[in-house]
Design brief:
The structure is a single chain. This protein has helices at residues 21-30, 49-66, 80-92, 106-115, 215-220, 231-236, 246-261, 264-285, 310-322, 347-364; strands at residues 10-11, 73-77, 98-103, 120-126, 147-153, 155-156, 161-162, 174-177, 194-198, 209-213, 290-291, 302-306, 325-326, 337-340. It is an alpha/beta fold. The protein has two domains: 10-16 and 263-364, Alpha-Beta Complex (Aspartate Aminotransferase, domain 1); 25-261, Type I PLP-dependent aspartate aminotransferase-like (Major domain) (Aspartate Aminotransferase, domain 2), CATH 3.40.640. Strands 2-10-9-8-5-3-4 form a seven-stranded mixed beta sheet. Strand 3 (98-103), helix 4 and strand 4 form a beta-alpha-beta unit. The chain is globular. The chain binds pyridoxal-5'-phosphate (PLP). Residues 15, 80-82, 107, 153, 157, 177, 179-180, 198 line the site of pyridoxal-5'-phosphate. Pyridoxal-5'-phosphate (PLP) is lined by residues 15, 80-82, 107, 153, 157, 177, 179-180, 198.
């Protein structure tokens, strides 16, 4: 099998996903002795000064990179975005409250199912019958007058679709699952009241979930919620109510540092556009490739496509593995191929993929 000079393959996995090599090496160095504290990275108390500096640094960097307004609260929690499906509804809704969903994929469906445990969640737009190939345009759906908020998923990891505009919420608060494009695309945080995202795609390892809350969202938090599901508890303790994922928060800080060193959010956005353009140009070059998403809804983070038949898809994946290109198998609900181009994926990896695709098409067309 072909491997790059560092011994790492070109990793197109959908998450946990490839991280910049610099970050991986920083972790390696910190494992026995974190920031010259004498304590190893996985062996240090979350109550230590050394760790407090790390979590403060990660929060500060995230606020700078995403231009999070000062009055917003930032939390680092556990339980993944999947816990936020329920926790966001539990904190923001009261029994029977209406809440509206734009259903653009399996993650939105799951989020809606959990919100329905608290309130009356309604799909205002749902593309399931068309195989989740597109994103709604403003004006294609209506929001209920009494909806408490509108929930949407900015990037659909499985299907490879993504919003390229701020969805209209008819003046209602927006709640956003940004798990697979946070810090990879431009975002207006101030236009949202709650944003949540697992770190394991663009920003770090699994086990850290970023939650960003507006003052409105913090005021909505109900009384007497189960302690671990109460945003105000985590906020009052600076995300240190209980033992956080100290390792994950260290890695998050290092990835954010790498983002800042490499042009900030603008740099990430430009690289992600360049990478996805390169791959979409190849997909549009030949009818051999069958891209899944409609052109105006294409994701810059997850690119999905089929081949003429399943046998060829299997062959593609086998030969790609031999060529040192990994993590390309599409999600079972879509099939085919998926290349995830998160922040840690370099343009060199995409160039290698495109060269492989050209050769594969020539040999099999
Ligand atoms: C958009 C989106 N939302 C939610 C999830 C679920 O995240 P987790 O596994 O962190 O619960 C994922 C996972 O891939 C995702 O891509």
């Amino acid at each position: 099998m072909y491997v790059t000079t560092s011994g790492r393959i070109h990793n197109f996995g959908a998450g946990p996903a490839t991280l910049p090599l610099q970050v991986v090496e920083e972790c390696q160095n910190a494992l026995p002795n974190l920031n010259e504290s004498g304590f190893g990275l996985m062996e240090i108390s979350h109550r230590s000064e050394t760790f407090q500096e790390i979590i403060d640094s990660a929060m500060g960097r995230l606020r700078r990179i995403l231009t999070i307004p000062d009055e917003y609260t930032v939390l680092f929690l556990q339980g993944g975005a999947s816990l936020q499906f329920y926790m966001s509804a539990l904190n923001l809704l009261r029994p029977g409250d209406h809440v509206d969903f734009l259903v653009t994929g399996a993650w939105s469906q799951k989020a809606m199912k959990e919100a329905n445990r608290i309130g009356d969640a309604s799909p205002r737009w749902d593309d399931s019958e068309n195989g989740f190939k597109s994103i709604p345009k403003n004006g294609e759906y209506s929001i209920r007058n009494d909806a408490m908020y509108v929930h949407y998923t900015s990037n659909n990891t499985l299907f490879g679709t993504q919003y390229h505009h701020l969805p209209d919420s008819d003046g209602k608060p927006r709640v956003l699952d940004a798990s697979s494009d946070i810090a990879g695309v431009p975002i207006d945080v101030s236009a949202h009241d709650l944003i949540y995202a697992g770190a394991q795609k663009n920003l770090g390892p699994s086990g850290v979930t970023i939650v960003i809350l507006s003052p409105w969202a913090m005021k909505r938090v109900g009384d007497d919620l189960p302690t671990m599901l109460d945003y105000s508890v985590h906020s009052s303790k600076g995300s240190l109510f209980n033992t956080p994922n100290t390792f994950g928060i260290f890695v998050l800080d290092r990835v954010l540092n790498w983002v800042e060193e490499n042009g900030g959010l603008e740099g990430s956005v430009a690289r992600n556009i360049a990478k996805s353009n390169l791959l979409y140009e190849e997909l549009d070059r030949s009818s051999f490739w069958k891209p899944h998403a409609k052109k105006d809804s294409r994701s810059v983070m997850n690119v999905t496509w089929r081949l003429p038949n399943e046998k060829l898809e299997e062959k593609f994946l086998q030969e790609a593995t031999i060529a040192g290109l990994g993590g390309l198998k599409g999600h079972r609900s879509v099939g085919g191929i998926r290349a995830s181009l998160y922040n840690g994926c370099s343009i060199k990896s995409v160039e290698a993929l495109v060269i492989f695709m050209r050769n594969f098409e020539q040999a099999n067309h």
